[in-house]
Structures are given as C-alpha cells and as structure tokens.
User: Fold DNA-binding transcriptional repressor AcrR from Streptomyces chartreusis NRRL 3882.
Amino acid sequence: MNEEPARRRYDSLRRTAQAQQTRAEIARAALGLFVAHGWTATTVRDVAREAGVSVPTVYAAYGNKTGLTRALADAADLSADVPQLIAELESPATDPARQLAAMAGYDRRLYERAGDVITLLREAGRSEPELATLYHDSRVRGDQTRVQVFSSWPAGVLRSGLDVPSAVDVYAALCNIDVYTVLTGERGWSPDRVEQWWRGALVRELLN
Assistant:
C-alpha cells in the first residue's frame, strides 16, 4: 500500500539529482568555452550545444550568461575553503606570521582551483557591468578581511612606517592572480613554491 508514495518520493529525488547534474554539466561546458574562446565570444547557444542541452534549459538553469558566470564565481569562492581560513585566523595558537600564512594559503587554493574563473570574471566585467561589480566586490571583501586581521594586531607588529591601508596595498601587490599566473605558468614554479615564497615575503615586508 505504501509503494506508490515511496515511488513518488524517489521520483522527486531523482528529478532533483538530474537537475543538479544538468546544472553541473552546463557550468563545466560554459567554463571550458569561456576559457577557450573568451566570455564575449561565447553565446548561450554555444554553451547549450557543448553541454548537450537545449537553449531554454540553460536559461531555466541560470537565467542568462551573466547568471551562469555569477554561479561559477560563487563556486570558486567555495572551492578555496573559507571555513579553513577562518579556523586558522581564529586559532588560539595563532600569531601575525601564522595569520599571514593562513591568508597566503587561502589565496594559493583560490588561484590554484579557480584562477581561470577569476580571470574570466575580470574579462567579462569589461563588457558586463554586473560582473564588473561582482569582481570589484570580491576584491573589496578580500581587502576588508585583511584590514580586520591587520587592525587586530598590537601596536608595533606592523613594519615601521606602515599603516594598515599601506599594509593591505603591499599584500595585494604580492598575492594576486597575476603574480600567481606568471610564476606558475611562465616561470615553472609549483603552487607550493609560490605559497612558501608568499609566506616569507609577507613576513619580511609587513612585520617588524
């Protein structure tokens, strides 16, 4: 007697799983096309063809190309493991050098796992104001985190002559997607080597 309701429940679960799988396939197809051909040159029809779905399915899943790119950006943030960063920053055993190491580790994870999405977002923002705002807001959030961390340190920790805004500028000059891309893509550095260099450079440049 209970078989039919149970079957209906499983049918609902199956439809949800299928919808999630379709969204994932669309996202993978879109990212590959965006990276290969550029955001502007890639159309929703191209994405649909690559994912093996209809154009209306892409619109139903993400709204439009901008919505799809926003979803990729959200996934990029998750991939870098923000909870790990928070735990390391708030650890009772932490100190300024360890906090700098935690932030460098987060940036390494972000660029290693989602650097293509960050580059894509910056490119797309040149022609799409909503995505330009999204890219800008993500940069602002990163700066705000650094301001909070640096402001929490006792007086005398920051290198002589540096105030908090200047320290944030120095951090941004060292740990950014362009530096990471040049070192790993052109100079042959491993992500581990980049992270270790960042750790040492941040301590040398920011701390007394």
Notes: The longest helix spans residues 3-37. Residues 73-206 form a domain with the Tetracycline Repressor; domain 2 fold (CATH 1.10.357). The chain has a mean pLDDT of 91.
